What we know:
Number of strands: 10
Oligomer: single chain
Low-confidence stretches: 259-332
Amino acid sequence: MSNLNERQIYQLSYPTLVKELGKRNLSTKGDLDILRTRLIHNCKGYDPQPYQFVAVIDFEATCMAKPPVYASQYIQEIIEFPIVLIDVTERKIIDTFHSYCQPVVQPILTDYCKDLTGLTQEQVDNALVFRDVFMNVEKWLIDRNLISNSEQKCLFITDGPADFNRYLRMQCEISNLTYPKWAHQWFNVKKAFAEFYSVKPGRIHKMLEDLHIQPYGNLHSGLDDATNIGRIVIELIKDGCVLLPNEFYIPSMQRNAQLLTGQSVSTRMICLNCSRSHSEDQRSCMQDVPQREQRSRSHYPRYPTNQSMSSERIPSLLDLPYPHTSNTRNNS
Length: 332
């Protein structure tokens, strides 16, 4: 069976792509861009994966139908903490951790939150507070030898920057916990999926749709969402995407310095359309889609895994207002 080059693959019709993939015993599910990328990487050969395990985390947090305009005024507490563990070599889910968390700042769930997440007031009332859940999480990770000072065998995966850079950071402040070292870098699957397959970024169901995979469970159930992200990650591994950290934690001390100097980070929020961080005055998050689609279809940015990461006691940001300054950049 002869290998095809990238130019030849781009000239193939959808039915021919399906036929070529079938010859190689590869999955024939997915949109045109997915099939092209899959065949390209099979013909080129696969690079080794640096991590033995990956752990998918997808928090659910307290929420309201109409949140405040500024993120500093919107305190959200983690109410569901799931982990889905994947063996990279076996390409399958091998273990899970799951726990609900009892909120303490806003202990009563809004009707909107209950409808969105499917959680009940009784479930969170009977749950452990986050500090105790976090201790169980770290014990679970240590028992499986997933985190250690000498070697990092496990890469953590989210479907956007908010899980670690917002929810976990804020919860550590609320619970007076040191932000964990293992969450200083992670793999944003939405970002990597869009860049690897050269498609527009989308949420979990959009990625599953692109792969022609039926969703599992209920949307906004933390464990079900983490499972679906895990299924997406397994397809990325099969198709040759090398899993490396592509996002990093911004320490609170750095955030505080930016706040005090009036830098525009104060008005940046997570966009629900593309899960990227935008300034509040940005009008469109899709302006750079053509440029992203022109990027290499066979590579995405690789980041070092040995960056120095120091653990620190997190100063509180909960009562710091976002200042209005005249030097805020206009990103519209």
